[in-house]
Structure prediction request, 72 residues.
Amino acid sequence: MLQALVDGAITPAQADDWARPWMVEGGIRIEDELVLQALGRLFGADLMTSPSSYLHGPADFRAWLEEFDTHH
Prediction:
């Protein structure tokens, strides 16, 4: 999903929707801290600083993917 976000194949809102069940429902336990961090970032990919401005953008998405790939 990080790769899809970087590639523009999904929107930040779609990334958030995809990660939501793991982050909100709480019934699924994620043991891998790196995976949990990636899910948290995907879950917050569509956060906005104003009605027309996202907190995160393509450079952030690339950095998240690079960090995940480097450590996983």
